[in-house]
Design goal:
Blueprint (H helix, E strand, L loop, with lengths): L2 H12 L2 H4 L7 H5 L6 H44 L1 H37 L4 H26 L1 H7 L4 H14 L2 H17 L4 H24 L3 H26 L18 H29 L5 H38 L3 H28 L12 H21 L2 H11 L2 H26 L3 H25 L3 H13 L11
Helix pairs in contact: 4-5, 4-10, 4-11, 4-13, 4-14, 5-6, 5-8, 5-9, 5-12, 5-13, 6-9, 6-12, 7-8, 8-11, 9-11, 10-11, 12-13, 12-17, 12-18, 13-14, 13-15, 13-16, 13-19, 14-15, 14-16, 14-19, 15-18, 16-18, 17-18
């Protein structure tokens, strides 16, 4: 008898089950519940599994969001090289248009909650109906938004923006109006794909659209001489290119044969119920996105408004790039949390939450350090104005703090989307941002005459308060109850009933 083989076999029997299987085949929940492993070993193996899953989702999602944000930044760069007033007009136009961007992105997040939990529970037939119903609801919401932006010029004047800049910004906004309906399709399709952990194709599509936009914008500005309006038209065309490519991919790819079965009349039923469900998501996301944009709008009321607008818009451009990185982890955390809750894995949902938050925080600290090291030079990407460069350098410490906070807060918001807490977070956002942050910023900026620094300090205070509240709520969460809530939410679905928020 071979004693060596017998010893090996017996030793293998004593090894934990999770260490007998190939690493890629071991589930996170199995590792975290394997009592034969030490706590430290479970954390180590769990972190290895989760980091692989997290980065597989987050990196392509970051690319998508950075590229989408980069399209607006590219438009600002071209506008800045056309002229100072054109840069201010494009900054106000893009900031104002973020109203509908945030609205559509927020309402699309309801798709992320429902599709993510349904996919985790293997109820694939529900995803296509959610996608169609959400697209219809968002397109209907886009109609009154179109009317609002048609009257952007008097609205900007009412807000106290300079007359010349307001007029140019209103023309720029008019060229962006068709984007409203591109958003309605894009964000629902994007969440549909993310819920199934399909993110790489969207990154390729967005990257190709950005390259196309840069080429067409250069042609429109320097060859055709269309100026600011050419920049707006090309930006709109680029968004519709993304939409067309995503729709073709979902329709023709065989990987969605179980989740996309074609158009269905069932998608027209219960639109009002879905609207109410998505309203909480919209309020949560909108309040977050509008918060930083209000800083740019308030800058138009300060002394030397053109200089304040230019410097703050440049800082906000870098902040938005950093924010998009965190939003990539937001998407990954939302998908992972909703999938694990739908699959009935409370420990995995908990572990996913804190892993994503920690990784995003470390990356944001590195970004803040990079900003501080290059504070005297980063403005020259947008403009050659030396006065703007000095102003941007002076604001970089505030930018660095904002970047660090944005490394935590969006990920926790992603967890909230995955769990379906949007309505609660919306109340938190109202209190922290609009009752504390903005009023405090206005007092410091205008009453105490700290100008842009005062406004930004107040708004950082609101973000810090919101981040601390979300950290506390997430820490106190009973994940077993969240699994039960997800199950009940999905059990409310059948062909005649509509999904409701618990």
């Amino acid at each position: 008898m071979d004693v060596t083989n017998e010893t090996t076999d017996r030793s293998d029997l004593r090894r934990p089950l999770v260490e007998k299987k190939p690493f890629s085949d071991v589930g996170l929940e199995s590792v975290l519940t394997e009592t034969s492993l030490s706590y430290r070993r479970r954390v180590y193996l769990g972190a290895c599994i989760e980091m692989k899953l997290l980065f597989r989702l987050a990196i392509p999602a970051i690319l998508v969001y950075v590229v989408n944000s980069g399209m607006n930044i590219s438009a600002r760069i071209f506008a800045g090289h056309v002229g100072g007033q054109e840069l201010a007009a494009a900054s106000i136009g893009n900031s104002s248009f973020n109203l509908v961007y945030g609205l559509m992105l927020g309402m699309g997040s309801a798709v992320e909650t429902l599709c993510g939990q349904a996919y985790g529970a293997r109820r694939y037939e529900m995803l296509g109906i959610y996608l169609q119903r959400a697209t219809i609801v968002l397109a209907l919401v886009g109609l009154p938004m179109t009317l609002l932006y048609t009257f952007s010029y008097p609205i900007l004047l009412l807000l106290g923006e300079p007359k010349t800049v307001s007029y140019m910004a209103s023309l720029y906004i008019a060229g962006l109006i068709p984007q409203i309906f591109a958003y309605a399709i894009n964000f629902t399709a994007q969440k549909f794909l993310q819920a199934q952990s399909v993110v790489i194709p969207s990154a390729y599509i967005s990257g190709a659209a950005l390259l196309l936009q840069i080429l067409l914008t250069w042609t429109a500005v320097y060859v055709m001489g269309l100026g600011l309006m050419g920049i707006a038209y090309v930006l709109t065309i680029s968004w519709w290119v993304i939409v067309g490519a995503q729709c073709l991919y979902i329709t023709w790819s065989p990987r969605f044969r179980h989740t996309w079965t074609g158009l269905s009349w069932a998608s027209f039923r219960g639109l009002w119920s879905f609207f109410k469900l998505s309203a909480g998501s919209a309020v949560m996301i909108c309040l977050e996105m509008w918060y930083s944009q209000i800083l740019v709008l308030l800058a138009g009321l300060l002394k030397q408004p053109a200089l304040s607008l230019d410097s703050l818009s440049i800082c906000m451009s870098f902040s938005s790039i950093s924010f998009m990185v965190s939003v990539g982890f937001n998407a990954a955390a939302s998908v992972r949390t909703s999938n694990e809750l739908g699959a009935g894995n409370p420990r995995s949902a908990f572990f996913t939450t804190w892993t994503a938050t920690f990784v995003s925080f470390v990356i944001s600290v590195a970004e803040a350090i990079a900003v501080m090291m290059s504070r005297d030079y980063i403005s020259y990407i947008f403009t050659a104005d030396a006065d703007v460069a000095v102003a941007v350098s002076d604001l970089c410490p505030f930018l660095a703090v904002t970047i660090i906070l944005n490394g935590i807060q969006p990920v926790l918001s992603g967890v909230a989307v995955g769990c379906g807490w949007q309505a609660y977070v919306a109340y938190v956002n109202v209190g922290c941002y609009y009752i504390v942050g903005i009023p405090l910023g206005c007092v410091l900026g205008f009453t105490f005459d700290f100008q842009a620094k005062g406004i930004w300090t107040g708004m950082i205070g609101g973000t810090l308060m919101q981040t601390l509240i979300l950290l506390y709520v997430t820490y106190r969460t009973d994940w077993d109850k969240e699994v039960e809530k997800a199950r009940k939410r999905l059990d409310l679905w059948d062909e005649k009933k509509e999904p409701l928020e618990n």
